[in-house]
Amino acid sequence: MVELIDQFSGHKIKVGRLIGKIEGSKHGPSMIFTGGIHGNEPSGVFAIKEVFDEISNSKIKVRGNIYGISGNLRALGKGLRYEKYDLNRLWTREKINNLLNEAGNNPAQDIIEQKEILVEIRKILNEDEGPFYFFDLHTTSSETNPFLTVNDCLANRKFAELFPVPMILGIEEYLEGPLLSYINELGYVAFGFEGGSHGDKSSVDNHKAFILLALVHAGMLKKKSFDYYKYYDQLAKTSFDSHEIFEIFYRYQVFDNSKFKMKPGFVNFQKVKQGLVLAKYNGERIKAEENARIFMPLYQNQGDDGFFLIRRVSPFFLKLSEKLRNLKIDKILPVLPGVKWHNSEKDTLEVDTSIAKFFAKRFFHLLGFRAIILDKNKYLMKNREKAVRSKDYKNEKFFQ
Q: Any keyword Metal-binding (predicted)?
């Protein structure tokens, strides 16, 4: 249990691992919200608590079950992103398999927190029938409008398109071990919502709006249960890019945070020209690789993602990718030169770039693949569509 204080209102709340649970009066989906995976991002926790209290106090009818799970409790209490390990980089299969072993070897607090979260998630998956929805609530160190970070499978994309905020595809290709990538690999709809910056008092309100809209879109709350259009408009007015979709194509990784300094004043989605100096690292000026938009520039003293560059994805590309994925075109890819299946499950391709010179990563992105290993002559492409539990969502309105 930890006590958190809202830096703007002074409001205090006490939360444990389970922020709250609401059991609906009717059978339906289960929706799980996580907040505070990074301890310097408490606004998601406040928003979850507010929404749960309002639903309970107003006795709003709910279809299905709603859960709120807190992230790094000790780091939240200290206002730190994390203590020793970034809790949102620990969710690889190998690290999860090692959790039980590490429990007996005096593990770091961040590892203990991860195990407790995993226990809660597995309990929900074992006890509820689903379908399941998972959403992780965050804020950024730079000034930003709200946006979604989405692992690119069609189920995620279709649900994310219901929200009036920009969508960012492909972040899983550049990050190892985010919580939601683990959830996506289990086959469930799961993506992140960034509600604003750490120091923006509107972040809690934006998180609250996202939670309520998500519950409506999944058919768990009725629009008339609250002022739906007020919250929809609240998010829609935050950005002129409200229905745009972008793709990450570059990440600047930081290995020693003390030597990295972002130039001041950059904000999310800001257009930058090729050659513009963006940061300094170890005394060297870091320039934009090409004309693009900057994404999540690092303005905090923890973290290894200096910044990302993103570009707009055309509607034509998105419609084409949906058609090709539905046609299961991926099955014929191994007939191409330099391409073969990497495993017996046939969910990962091995691409020899010295032979398959004409098949860029964007070609595989079109079909739902994302690079998980990349070196000079070879990369592995994992099919995000393969894991999706489509049968679980076939009767859900958004998926039809």
A: yes
Cα gap 195→94, rounded to integer Å:
31
Q: Within the chain, where are the H helices?
A: 43-57, 73-78, 93-97, 99-102, 109-127, 154-160, 179-185, 203-217, 228-236, 315-326, 361-366, 390-393
Looking at residue 297, what is its pLDDT?
94
261-295 pLDDT, tens digit each = 999 999 999 999 999 999 999 999 999 999 999 99
Q: How confident is the model at residue 180 (pLDDT cuts 50, 70, 90)?
A: very high
What are the pLDDT digits (tens) for 302-324?
888 999 999 999 999 999 999 99
d(CA 252, CA 272): 15
Half-sphere exposure of 135 (CA within 13 A, CB side): 29
pLDDT higher than threshold 70 for residue 298: yes
Give the whole-angstrom CA distance, residue 9 versus residue 141: 20
Helix pair 203-217, 228-236: axis angle to 10 deg: 120
- Residue 171: DSSP 8-state: G
What is the mean pLDDT of the segment spanning 103-127?
Answer: 89
- Is pTM beyond 0.90? Reply is yes
pLDDT, residue 223, reads 95
Q: Are the C-beta atoms of residues 180 and 191 closer than 8 Å to each other? A: yes
Q: What is the DSSP string of 306-372?
A: EEEEEEEPPHHHHHHHHHHHHTTGGGGGGGSTTEEESSTTS-EEEEETTT-TT--HHHHHHTTEEEE
Dihedral sign, Cα of residue 312, residue 178, residue 251, residue 82:
positive
Give the integer Cα–Cα distance in Å for 231 and 168: 21
Structure tokens at 310: 């993103």
- Cα–Cα dist 47/205, whole Å: 7
The rounded distance, in Å, linking the Cα atoms of 37 and 112 is 13
- Which tokens go with 311? 């570009």
| DSSP letter (8 states) at residue 263 | P
Tokens read off for 93: 């299969």
List the structure tokens of 374: 């990349």
The two structure tokens encoding residue 14: 């006490």
Assigned token pair, 339 = 């391409």
